[in-house]
Amino acid sequence: MRFRFWFVCLVGLLIGLEGCNRLCNNVECNDPNGACVDGACVCKLGFEGDDCSVVSADKFLGSYTVNAGCSSASYFSTIVATEDGDGNVVNGFVEIHNFGNTQCPSSGEIRVLARVASDSIYIDPEPYCVEGGFGGFTFSSASGVISGNNLTMTYTREYTQQGNLVTETCTDVFQK
Fold first, then answer.
1. What are the backbone angles phi and psi of residue 166, rounded to the nearest 5°?
2. pLDDT averaged over the chain?
3. CB-neighbour burial class of residue 104 (10 A; exposed 0-12, middle 13-18, buried 19+)
4. Are residues 43 and 60 in the same domain?
């Protein structure tokens, strides 16, 4: 009796596993971009879509005119693909040039790294200057959402001006 119980359980388990595998028989997830789980693709960071063939960062790339939220000025910014030391694109990340319309000590532009996931973007808190250093600025709670050609970014930036710490919360609208 006990043997029959375990035999039935084992057969049921094997049939169940085979059924799960069949759910993925005709599902293409563009390996290594994603993998099939229970008949649907689960995409790795940097990829999206029903078959994980869409590079998440692509919709963010381009040149933008930005309406600055902390001032009445407009400025220009560019979002480019992030590359590793060998020139290979790093999926799931982008680099924003001239973020926040802030300047480095030697008048160079500030750049930030950002992680993208679907329609959202998350900014690294420490920007950097092209010529080195970070220009005395930090960004926190920095994130945004893209819809069509518009990217709305909200962030808090801190910097020192004439010996005083200045904190500003800004919402910039980037338009391609």
1. -110, 130
2. 82
3. buried
4. no
Give me the pLDDT at residue 135, please.
59
Q: Is the pLDDT of residue 175 over 90?
A: yes
Q: How many structural domains does the chain have? A: 2
* The pLDDT of residue 15: 43
Q: For the whole prediction, is pTM greater than 0.85?
A: no
81 and 17 together in one domain? no
Domain that holds residue 98: 56-175
CB 165 within 8 A of CB 175: no
Specify the long-range contacts of residues 48-53, CB closer than 8 Å, at least 24 apart: 48/118, 51/27
User: Using CB atoms within 10 A of its CB, is residue 138 exposed (0-12), middle (13-18) or buried (19+)?
Assistant: middle
Q: Which of 52, 70, 94 is the last residue in one of the domains?
A: 52
More confident residue, 175 or 74: 175
- Residue 95 phi/psi, 5-degree rounding, is -125, 130
